[in-house]
Write a structure and sequence with these properties.
- There is one protein chain.
- This protein has about 240 residues and is an alpha/beta fold.
- The chain has one domain: Rossmann fold, CATH 3.40.50.880.
- Helix content is about 30%, strand content about 25%.
- Strands 4-1-5-6-13-12-11-8-9 form a 9-stranded mixed beta sheet, sandwiched between helices. A two-stranded antiparallel ribbon has the order 2-3.
- Helix 2 packs across helix 3 and helix 3 packs across helix 4.
- The chain is globular, with a radius of gyration of 17 Å.
- Manganese (II) ion binds next to loops.
C-alpha cells in the first residue's frame, strides 16, 4: 500500500504559441504538497466525467488558482473588468467539488479555488474588487508571489484558528475577485481589514477549506503556511486509510 496520500491539483489553461498549449499549475503547489508529505499529481480539465474519474485516484484535491469563474454560474452578466474564463474548467471543477464533498475527499481551495467552491454551493462573487468594493486594500500585489502584503483576521473557533494557532496572520494577495454572498454551507473563517472575505470552511461532514491567498507560495519560508499544508495532508492521509 502507498505510504503517502495522492493529492490531485486542478490545472489552468496556458497557450504559449500555436504549437504549445495545455495544462498549467504553478510549481509551488507541487513543492508544497511534496514537502508536506503528499504525492502531487496534476489534473487537467477535460469535462465533468473525466474529472470524476481522476478524483477516484485522489486522497485529496487542491483547487488551484487561475482564470476567473464565468459569472454565468452565479447568474450575473460579465463586468468590464472580468478576466479570462474557461467554461470547461469551471464545469470540470464544479463536478469535482460536488463529488469530493459527497465522497469525503478533503478539499483545499486556493484563490480561484475558493471562488469556484463558493459558486458551486450557490454563492456569488465580486467580479472586480477595485471597481466594485469601496475603499479596498491592494489585493493584486505588485511584489513577488511569496511575500505577505496584508493582514487577515481569523475567526475564533475555525479550523484555521486551530491549525495556525493565531488570530491575525499576514498573507500574500494575488486576486482581483472575491466572495460576495457566501454559500449557505460555508462559513467565513478569515477576513481582511477592508471586509473582503479571505477564507471559508465547509460546515458539512466532509472537509473543505478555502483561502483567498496563496499558501503554496509562502510555505517554503512561512512556518504557518507550511503547517497549513501539513494539516491538510494529514486529513488526506486519514481519508486514504479510511
Ligand atoms: Mn487579499
Amino acid at each position: 500500500m502507498r505510504q503517502k496520500p495522492v493529492i490531485g491539483i486542478t490545472g489552468g489553461y496556458v497557450k504559449h504559441n500555436a504549437f504549445m498549449e495545455g495544462v498549467y499549475v504553478h510549481h509551488d503547489y507541487h513543492r508544497s504538497v511534496a514537502a508536506a508529505g503528499g504525492i502531487p499529481i496534476v489534473l487537467p480539465f477535460l469535462n465533468p466525467e473525466a474529472a470524476l474519474e481522476a478524483a477516484a485516484l485522489c486522497d485529496g484535491v487542491i483547487l488551484s488558482g487561475g482564470e476567473d469563474v464565468d459569472p454565468l454560474y452565479y447568474g450575473e452578466e460579465p463586468h468590464p473588468q472580468l478576466g479570462y474564463t474557461t467554461r470547461e474548467r469551471d464545469e470540470a471543477e464544479i463536478a469535482l467539488i460536488r463529488h469530493a464533498l459527497e465522497h469525503s475527499i478533503p478539499l483545499l481551495a486556493i484563490c480561484r479555488g475558493v471562488q469556484i467552491l463558493n459558486v458551486t454551493l450557490g454563492g456569488t462573487l465580486i467580479q472586480d474588487i477595485p471597481s466594485q468594493w469601496s475603499d479596498p486594500l491592494q489585493h493584486s500585489q505588485k511584489v513577488e508571489r511569496g511575500r505577505d502584503t496584508h493582514a487577515v483576521a481569523i475567526e475564533p473557533g475555525s479550523w484555521l484558528a486551530e491549525i495556525l494557532g493565531a488570530m491575525r496572520i499576514r498573507v500574500n494577495s494575488l486576486h482581483h475577485q472575491a466572495l460576495k454572498e457566501v454559500a449557505d454551507d460555508l462559513k467565513v473563517a478569515a477576513s481582511a481589514s477592508d471586509g473582503i472575505i479571505e477564507a471559508v470552511e465547509y460546515t458539512g461532514s466532509s472537509f473543505a477549506v478555502g483561502v483567498q491567498w496563496h499558501p503554496e507560495s509562502m510555505a517554503a519560508t512561512n512556518p504557518l503556511m507550511k503547517r497549513l499544508f501539513e494539516a491538510f495532508i494529514i486529513r488526506c492521509k486519514k481519508q486514504q486509510e479510511a
